[in-house]
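Page 37, continued from 36.
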């Protein structure tokens, strides 16, 4: 496995990963509420590459997982009390953690979270934060297993997409 910042040459493969995962989720219980052509899309991947914030996990050169790491929170993050107090220069927020359906239940999600933690520690970050649509039990189980703690529930402004509530998680980096 190779973890690296996404490059322009990865764009099509990331878009394909997003589409395959959305199709899989729609067929097997869509906890995150992702929809092919709506979110996540190749345009989201393009924005992540432009920002230098999109990372990929590759096996034998094929993109099997992806996530975005930013020092910017969702506006709704201000609605909960976090475990750490700091500005977002010292906190990474994980967005759009995605694993290709052919690689689900093989530890790829945990591997992506481990890599996010490694990068955050290398930059001197105090914590990692993320949100998950309420009811996305597999994702919440993964986050708890990897040491994240639920700090509250908030409306992040996605009710029009059928996602009124999100559980917010944080992992403190000691």
């Amino acid at each position: 496995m190779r973890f690296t910042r996404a490059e322009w040459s990865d764009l099509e493969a990331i878009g394909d990963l997003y589409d395959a995962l959305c199709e899989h989720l729609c067929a097997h219980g869509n906890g995150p509420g992702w929809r092919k052509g709506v979110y996540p899309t190749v345009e989201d991947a393009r924005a992540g590459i432009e920002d230098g914030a999109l990372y990929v996990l590759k096996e034998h050169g094929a993109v099997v997982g992806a996530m975005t790491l930013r020092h910017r929170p969702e506006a709704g993050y201000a609605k909960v009390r976090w475990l750490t107090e700091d500005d977002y220069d010292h906190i990474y927020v994980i967005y759009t953690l995605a694993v290709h359906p052919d690689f689900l239940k093989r530890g790829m999600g945990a591997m992506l979270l481990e890599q996010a933690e490694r990068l955050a520690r290398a930059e001197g970050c105090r914590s990692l934060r993320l949100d998950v649509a309420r009811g996305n039990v597999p994702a919440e189980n993964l986050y708890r297993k990897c040491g994240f703690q639920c700090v509250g529930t908030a409306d992040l402004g996605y009710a029009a997409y059928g996602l009124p509530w999100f559980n917010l998680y944080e992992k403190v980096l000691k």
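The helical segments are 11-28, 42-51, 108-122, 137-145. Flag for discussion at group meeting. The mean pLDDT is 95.
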